[in-house]
Amino acid sequence: MNARWNLVLLPSALVCLLLLFGTQFVFLRAGFYEDLGLGLIGDRFLFDNYLTAFRDTFYFDALWLTIYLSAIVVACSLAVAYPAAYAIARMRSQWAMLLLAAIVVSSFVTVVIKVLGLIIIFGTHGPINSLLSAFGFTDSPVRIVGTLAGVVIGLMHYVLGFMVLLLFSVIQTIPRSLEEAARIHGASRWRTMWRVVIPLSLPGIVTGSLIVFNLSMGAFVSAALLGGGKVLTLPVVIERTVVLNAEYAMGGTLSAILLGTVLIINIVSVLLVRRLRAARLMVA
Fold first, then answer.
1. 60-240 adopts what CATH topology?
2. I need a labelling partner for 81 at 20 to 30 A (CA). Which of 14, 29, 121, 194 fits?
3. How many angstroms separate the CA atoms of 42 and 249, rounded?
4. pTM recorded for the entire structure
5. Span 69-124, pLDDT tens digits
6. Are 226 and 150 in contact (CB under 8 A)?
7. Helix (H, G, I), strand (E, B) or coil at 279
């Protein structure tokens, strides 16, 4: 007898959706009303906040910077996480489980501790700058606070564990016999990776990339602490709008724009991947 897991999971899914949309609806609804100052909101329904957000280059630049940084984080995380996930998935010793457990534990460390650790490591007298100075690679300390590179490093430190775990779970399901067969037929190691392993792990690559992108788009702590007030991503602008300016209506508008942008990018990405896979199957 097959269990009806969809019915078992339905109540939990409904509760999660209720908590998600119920709490966000009140905030997003405020974006259609006027800010009266001191945290007060008018009662006239209008679209002035959205017109202001799309016309003001400050908000547009913040949105574009958020997308740009998130895309860089996805590319860098994928380049670092894929070899690590592949190596762990193909290890035959007990070190694989130990490394995987270390990655899982590191993923549970709060992002504030991770960011503060980076600030200490890259400090003026920290170990990184001490090594660079000792080997003569730099004359002045390398700074990460207040730079785009620092925000990227902070976001990577936050999402890298998730990317490795997602890729590991997919690569582990790819039979080793397929790689061995490709090598027997004369394919090099790099060609085997490019023509066999990577195409079969494409679902994990797409899923991991979208999850990392979504986490980076909504990340606030890394951008706020490592950005040092100079890297104004949209989550940082939303926080300043709500907390410092007490403009809840504009904060709701910017939040809706951020949410809509993430949804559109995710939907377009999934559709593009499906079309590419369909075209590849037709060619094959």
1. MetI-like fold (1.10.3720)
2. 121
3. 9
4. 0.85
5. 999 999 999 999 999 999 888 887 778 788 888 888 887 888 888 888 888 888 77
6. yes
7. helix
